[in-house]
Amino acid sequence: MCIPGRMRSLTAASAILTALAGHAATADEGEKVRPAYCAGRWYPGEPAALKKEVDDLLARTSPPEMSHKPVAVISPHAGYRYSAPVAASGYACLRGRTYKRVIVLALSHRYAGGYQGVDVPRDLTAYATPLGEVPLDRQVCDRLLASPPFGSHPAVDRGEHSLELQLPFLQRILKEFTLVPLLVGRMTDRDNVLAAQAIVPLLDEDTLLVASSDFTHFGPNFGYQPFTDDVPEKLRALARQAAKPILACDYDGFVEHLNKTQDTICGHGPIKLMLRILSMKGGALGVRAAYDTSGKISGDWSNSVTYQSFVFSRRPGTLNSAQRAELLRLARQTVTAFLKGEVPPQVDADKLPAAIRNDGGCFVTLENHGQLRGCSGNMVAAGPLYEAVIRNAVSACQDRRFVNNPVTAEELAQLHIEISYLTPMKRVAKPEEIVIGRHGLLISLDWQRGVLLPQMAYERGWTRAEFLAQTCRKAGLPSDAWKQPKAEIYSFEAEVIGEPER
């Protein structure tokens, strides 16, 4: 079983840092391949036995259906006797998929509070398991080391199991891939934003993100006993509470769960960073693949660790690739004609896809190398979607915020056009319903109102509170005006359709 760092009897933080420095100084200078520290103890050390156990577990599991390719997995890391069946249920969802790179977010149990930021190995070239060596993506590791909050702390991974125990499953299900091993230490909200901003560009179709974590550590051995009766069912209920914000990719909701319950989730750091990353990608569709407890396995509920696995895929859109391409073509055509002073070509609506002839609201955004050059839209559908795109493309070129520096025809080659196709607005009953990465906001008070699209929040890594404050400012209101009883808050979702980066 796994004992989280904050529940162990550790020395003071200064002593930990001293120990880290000492260990780092005595590390084998020529060591390039990290050995399999945990083989033979946490999982089988003999290659044939390990292969058979992992393959048997993967073959026996019935994973949830995934219509889209998974982009991320949360998997437990206790000894295989306890957590391997739950881990297998998550990894089995990857069967038949290919990935060239896997980024694993793990932690150091022994030094959980002893280092700030995210540890990246500086000199290692591979991780070893009894099944062979997994090569590191050195180019990515070096790139991350050049950015905050990444750094190298060699001692924190010595003897650590949280990352190593994920590798045999990945080796058997994916066969060949490169690894980016990251151990998450103490992190502020801002640290998570900076780390996520560095990782998000790496998440292409061939990259998988894995977070390693066990869940509730219950009992006197872990210093956590919020209840004493009906332990199995209350542990299950606590697991569901933790799962709810995770499945919604709700960073703020997960942090609130931790603060409210003090839930002893050892990998809360890797999970928080994963949720921030996924929210910056516009969120994801999550499913819980499996749940179990060591109490059930051993029959001893006096001390128990909870295991859960989750799998995430990209949220499906309502428009297909051809419909998206047609809307972008119309937007580009309209912007080009307007900026050149030409009359836009006539549109034969009968030849357009039926889906974009339906009523719809949208925003059209113009950017030049990441700098906003115009944005305009309608919150409520007032006619066919394709007409809204054309109309808002013209309005974006005339954005009053840039009256002294309007977008020009000379910028056409540098302009990036993005269309946000909006769902109907929904009145927000309580702020906790707002999920960064999914929702845009409209806040209205008296005659003032402000609107911000979902991507404004998730691209900047705002918290829910920051998003509410920024939307109030957009309305010309005080940042806390959303708290006033007369204030009305509405949320909406947006299917973001953007041109390929030039």
The top level CATH class name of the largest domain: Alpha Beta
- The fraction of residues in strands falls at 15-25%
Q: What is the CATH topology descriptor of the largest domain?
A: Protocatechuate 4,5-dioxygenase, Chain B
General shape: globular
Q: How large, in whole angstroms, is the Cα Rg?
A: 25 Å
Amount of helix:
25-40%
Rounded mean pLDDT score: 92
Q: Count of DSSP E strands? A: 19
Q: What is the helix tally?
A: 15
What is the CATH superfamily label of the largest domain? LigB-like
**Which consecutive residue ranges, at least 5 long each, have pLDDT under 50?**
1-30
Give the structural class.
Answer: alpha+beta
Distance between the termini: 49 Å
Largest sheet: 9 strands, mixed
The appropriate CATH architecture of the largest domain is 3-Layer(aba) Sandwich
Whole-number tally of structural domains: 3
Task: Give a short summary of the structure.
The chain folds into three domains: 32-313, LigB-like (Protocatechuate 4,5-dioxygenase, Chain B, 3-Layer(aba) Sandwich); 321-422, Glycoprotein, Type 4 Pilin; 426-498, Hypothetical protein ph0010, domain 2 (Dna Ligase, domain 1), CATH 3.30.1490.150. The protein contains 15 helices and 19 strands. It has helices at residues 13-26, 47-60, 80-91, 138-145, 167-174, 189-199, 231-247, 251-261, 268-280, 294-298, 321-339, 354-357, 385-397, 454-458, 464-474, and strands at residues 33-34, 70-75, 101-106, 118-119, 126-129, 132-135, 150-151, 178-184, 207-212, 217-218, 285-293, 304-313, 361-368, 371-377, 415-422, 426-427, 439-445, 448-452, 488-498.
